[in-house]
Amino acid sequence: MKHAELVAAVTSDPSASCRSALLASWARSMTRYKLDPYDQSPPHRLTEQELREARQSVEPLLEAAGSTLDRLFQAVGGAGCCVLFTDKNGVPVERRGHCADDTTFEGWGLWTGNVWSERFEGTNGIGTCLAEQRALTIHRDQHFHVRNIGLSCTVAPIHDHRGRLAAALDVSSCREDLDENFVKLIASAVVDAARRIEARHFRNAFPSARIVLAPDADWGSGALLAIGADDLIIGATSAARAACGITDAMLERELPAQEILHDVAAEAEELSLAERGVVHRALARANGNVSAAAKALGISRATLHRKMRRLGLQTVRN
Fold first, then answer.
1. How far apart are CA 104 and CA 109, in angstroms?
2. Are the C-beta atoms of residues 173 and 148 closer than 8 Å to each other?
3. Which of 17, 140, 261, 296 is the most core-located residue (most Cβ within 10 A)?
4. Tens-place pLDDT, residues 137-176
């Protein structure tokens, strides 16, 4: 059965979309977007002004992504792959590729300014990743359009510092001999790169905050929290929100770090008590003389006064 006929047959079954994410995407392409698998039209392309606006919408993420995109391309470029960074609408706004492959990839439409949303291209790596909001690979004849079945696209979503879907990272190849095991390696590299971009952007968004890992998470998960000076959580990545059940409403009404980081909060409290003991003993040895205690501790009197206020200590002598 030809590819287009298979798509039509599968999507005519009302239960198809319940069986897999791929079939659900095929069904959306056929029924919601009224696309034709045989359509040979080139990808929809933005105007130069629209492309500039699309790029501006993800500029902070692009600033965080630069070095990671370079490293990812160094890893996969030699295998005939290109790297695309798209906005949330599936428009590539940044690209890495070998000059020798540019004509081939541009011919396939894997170029900045082309729209790879499901609405225009049906099932494809970028569009379906954004629709499903999860990392995935659309390999060759899993694509909806017949004209795209020569592609293999591995994509991961990228969320901004507020946990909102904002972009996607794609590695695409049009090589017929692309090995399945290599595709799995690409998938791992793409997900890791996406998490690195999210983490760097998150740190950039909260430059004065203390960045900590959410409970029971590993660094590769990207589950990060930003804690302000008052020990309130002021930001959380998408992974941290999912892991800890954090919502915008919780952050808006001020969320104490202790409510989420029970172990970390207890450790911080122990450190605070230890510090209080050190300061208290220094003051006792100096008979309450702040200047003498500060000198013994190797800090300024002003610093010691600040510590005393924070630790709830009082004295009568300066």
1. 9
2. no
3. 261
4. 999 999 999 999 999 999 999 999 999 999 999 999 988 8
pTM: 0.80
- List strands edge to edge, sheet with 210-213: 210-213, 224-227, 232-236, 255-256
| Total residues found in the chain within this entry | 318
Q: Which two tokens stand for residue 259?
A: 């409510």
Non-local CB neighbours of 45 within 8 Å, separated by 6+ positions: 113, 114, 115
Render pLDDT for 73-128 as a digit per residue (tens, 0 to 9).
999 999 999 999 999 999 999 999 999 999 999 999 999 999 999 999 999 999 99
Which token pair is 129? 């990743």
